[in-house]
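Below is a filled-in request sheet from our internal design queue. Each sheet records the structural input a requester submitted and the sequence that came back. We keep these sheets so that new team members can see what a complete request looks like end to end.

REQUESTER: design group, bay 2
PRIORITY: normal
MODE: inverse folding
CHAIN LENGTH: 771
BACKBONE (tokenized):
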């Protein structure tokens, strides 16, 4: 699985942290064994199968177990059936100790064989409650031979031998039959007990019953537990060491869940993925692999008052029963301390579990985990597909989901075993080594492509066949084969396909070239197709190419991607990779395969308006910014051009004499308002905020005079306009070029300067100056 690939494996992100809290794993013991078929199965042609499993749970009731350990055993047994995804599986639960008198019995049946449909799951919880620690009067020893005999009987009587048989033995691992008369005299009971245990273990192996012991208590007898695990049926659901029965040890109540889930995952060929753990209210996360065809999200609530809602990787709340977006859901254990949501065809990615609880029920942590089973497909190619005798050939097995999506995360196929063999006419079968280590013929390590090379024997003649088998725990085995023919010295038609690496959007295309060379004097027909992918996801055109005698050249080849609606929820923001194989066959030359070229197409969602036209938006924004800047500059320049600062206002008498001068300051909204003071005695100009006169510059030069109630009048640079009956206004020399900015603290003061006047000695004028 990919990580928190958390939203993201993006989002492909997978949660790989945290652990399940008290008994969290015991909630789901999913039986998803899918028998491996030897025949190749077309990619995505099969539906996920949930094979049933028959299992029995033997719970130690002896006096050697502490009360806390007994409680933990009962909790584990009560939750065994909750997460089983097959409604045809069966479970039997019984307690055991030892019969130490004639009126006692070693085995205590509590749950008869129960079909794990909806009604069966409900009944299991009640009958498991009958388990208890034995009193002295009931027999308190530990009789393993009787427990195994009972388990083998329950699993082998009236059941289909093709259905896997698993016995879970929950015990402290300390056999004690010293008080049991059935084992003979007291001096020899221990030896007789060991002998009978050996016989029962051999019987279990003969009846195909696996034994998975789980040790409780402070010091379980690990050697005894290992002996029982090794004595039963050893062939697991797959031919891998991880599927062989092993003994586990529980160091405390919190370990029961994870230990039991791991044991069930191994026994049932499942994958176990822990998620996060927090106190409610909290949002927990757990990842589901893109390989998963069925899984069960286990939530250890610790407190039945906790309520849970489930969100898929897209953030949609899913139902607890029925179908939603091509996935099917079924919840078990909603009213208990542990519940499990079974999902068929789950959406891969990071799932979120929202846990809420009322006040007073938030002290215990809530944990989440997932058990899942999936299907792994391989796409097998040999290059060249029609080699010559003595030629070196490269064989590649690429990993895919059953729909044809590529698998790149090594965590998804951890523990995978790849076997390959070359067979054909004229030579003995040859074993090939395929590796994903980036060495030798393998171009890149840990990328989901296993590659090897083989030299075609010189004695080879006629047909060839290369096969490959994928085997992994939790993933149904897949066998692929590719047939070919030994090529003669010269082929009548040779081809070479070039497809450049390129991303594509749904409905898009990838275009390449097929180089063709027909050396024969006859027409040849080539057939093109895409294999190893779910029909409809990828297609190639043209489907047929006709070659004229002696024709050489290149032909355009286009790979088309399905439209967006075909991908559904699998196409998230991170996109996906489609894998396939482009095949070119010469139908004129006995359907000889000329090309089998691996195809990898990264598919990304169609970009939105911004992603598609960002350059246009940025260009438009830049133009708008430039235009706005130009307008602002024009307005600023216009303001500056109209600002009256620097104009020298002159009062001119009827005789044409300048009787006063006044430098204008910055105006209010480009208008400098003023008044004429003492127009008849000693006329001068003073600034007034609401004076009867105002001036501003004119863009054409000079100024514009505004009179209160009198409109506006143009004041040329070398002219004058009347202000009063005896005075006119004119402009003096410009002072703006030598302006000095007034400090904020400056205050205007009035200074009287003597100005010569025609016909008189002097006159006075008022200037605005600054100190």
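RETURNED SEQUENCE:
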């Amino acid at each position: 699985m990919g990580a928190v690939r958390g939203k993201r494996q993006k989002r492909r992100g997978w949660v790989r942290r945290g652990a399940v809290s008290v008994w969290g794993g015991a909630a789901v013991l999913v039986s998803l064994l899918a028998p491996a078929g030897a025949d190749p199965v077309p990619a995505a042609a099969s539906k996920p199968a949930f094979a049933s499993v028959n299992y029995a749970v033997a719970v130690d009731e002896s006096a050697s177990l502490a009360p806390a350990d007994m409680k933990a055993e009962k909790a584990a047994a009560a939750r065994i059936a909750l997460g089983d995804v097959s409604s045809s599986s069966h479970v039997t639960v019984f307690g055991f100790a030892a019969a130490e008198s004639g009126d006692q019995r070693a085995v205590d049946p509590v749950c008869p064989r129960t079909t794990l449909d909806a009604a069966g799951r409900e009944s299991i919880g009640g009958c498991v409650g009958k388990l208890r620690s034995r009193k002295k009067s009931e027999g308190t020893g530990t009789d393993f031979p009787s427990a195994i005999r009972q388990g083998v009987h329950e699993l082998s009587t009236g059941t289909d031998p093709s259905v896997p048989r698993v016995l879970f033995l929950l015990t402290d691992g300390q056999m004690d039959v010293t008080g049991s008369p059935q084992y003979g005299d007291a001096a020899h009971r221990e030896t007789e007990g060991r002998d009978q245990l050996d016989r029962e273990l051999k019987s279990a192996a003969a009846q195909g019953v696996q034994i998975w012991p789980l040790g409780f208590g402070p010091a379980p007898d690990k050697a005894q537990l290992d002996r029982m695990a090794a004595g039963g049926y050893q062939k697991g659901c797959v031919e891998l060491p991880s599927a062989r029965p092993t003994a586990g040890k529980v160091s405390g109540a919190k370990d029961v869940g994870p230990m039991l889930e791991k044991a069930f995952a191994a026994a049932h060929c499942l994958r176990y993925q822990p998620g996060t753990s927090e106190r409610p209210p909290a949002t927990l996360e757990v990842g589901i692999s893109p390989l998963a065809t069925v899984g069960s999200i286990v939530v250890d609530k610790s407190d039945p008052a906790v309520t849970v809602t489930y969100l898929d990787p897209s953030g949609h709340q899913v139902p607890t029963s029925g179908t939603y977006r091509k996935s099917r859901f079924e919840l078990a254990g909603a009213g208990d301390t542990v519940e499990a949501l079974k999902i068929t065809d789950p959406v891969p990615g990071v799932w979120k579990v929202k846990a809420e609880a009322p006040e007073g029920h938030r002290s215990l942590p809530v944990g989440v985990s997932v058990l899942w089973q999936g299907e792994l497909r391989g796409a097998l190619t040999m290059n060249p597909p029609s080699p010559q005798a003595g030629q070196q050939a490269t064989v590649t097995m690429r990993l895919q989901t059953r729909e044809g999506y590529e698998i790149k995360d090594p965590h998804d196929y951890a523990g995978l075993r790849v076997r390959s063999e070359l067979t054909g006419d004229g030579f003995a079968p040859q074993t090939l080594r395929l590796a994903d280590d980036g060495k030798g013929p393998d171009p890149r390590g840990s990328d989901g492509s296993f590659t090897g090379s083989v030299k075609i024997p010189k004695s080879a003649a006629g047909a060839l066949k290369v096969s490959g088998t994928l085997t992994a725990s939790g993933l149904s085995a897949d066998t692929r084969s590719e047939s070919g023919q030994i090529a003669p010295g010269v082929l009548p038609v040779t081809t070479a396909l070039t497809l450049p690496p390129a991303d594509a959007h749904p409905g898009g295309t990838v275009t390449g070239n097929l180089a063709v060379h027909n050396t024969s004097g006859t027409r040849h027909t080539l057939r093109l197709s895409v294999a190893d992918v779910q029909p409809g996801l990828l297609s190639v055109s043209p489907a047929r190419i006709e070659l004229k005698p002696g024709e050489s050249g290149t032909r355009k080849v286009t790979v088309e991607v399905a439209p967006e609606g075909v991908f559904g929820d699998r196409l998230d923001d991170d996109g996906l990779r489609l894998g396939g194989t482009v095949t070119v066959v010469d139908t004129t030359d006995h359907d000889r395969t000329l090309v089998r070229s691996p195809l990898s197409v990264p598919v990304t969602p169609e970009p939105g308006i911004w992603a598609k036209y960002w350059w246009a938006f940025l260009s438009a924004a830049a133009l708008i910014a430039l235009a706005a800047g130009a307008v602002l500059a024009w307005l600023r320049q216009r303001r500056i051009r109209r600002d009256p600062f620097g104009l020298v206002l002159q009062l001119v008498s009827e005789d044409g004499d300048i009787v006063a001068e006044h430098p204008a300051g910055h105006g209010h909204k480009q208008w400098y308002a003023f008044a004429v003071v003492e127009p008849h005695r000693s006329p001068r100009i003073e600034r007034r905020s609401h004076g009867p006169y105002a001036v501003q510059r004119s863009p054409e030069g000079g100024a514009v005079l505004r009179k209160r109630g009198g409109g506006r009048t143009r004041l040329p640079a070398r002219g004058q306009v009347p202000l009063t009956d005896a005075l006119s206004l004119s402009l003096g020399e410009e002072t703006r070029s030598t302006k000095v900015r007034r400090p904020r603290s400056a205050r205007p003061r009035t200074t009287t300067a003597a100005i010569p006047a025609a016909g008189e000695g002097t006159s006075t004028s008022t200037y605005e100056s600054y100190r």
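SHEET NOTES:
- Residues 633 and 639 are 10 Å apart (CA to CA).
- The two ends are 81 Å apart (CA to CA).
FILED BY: M.R.
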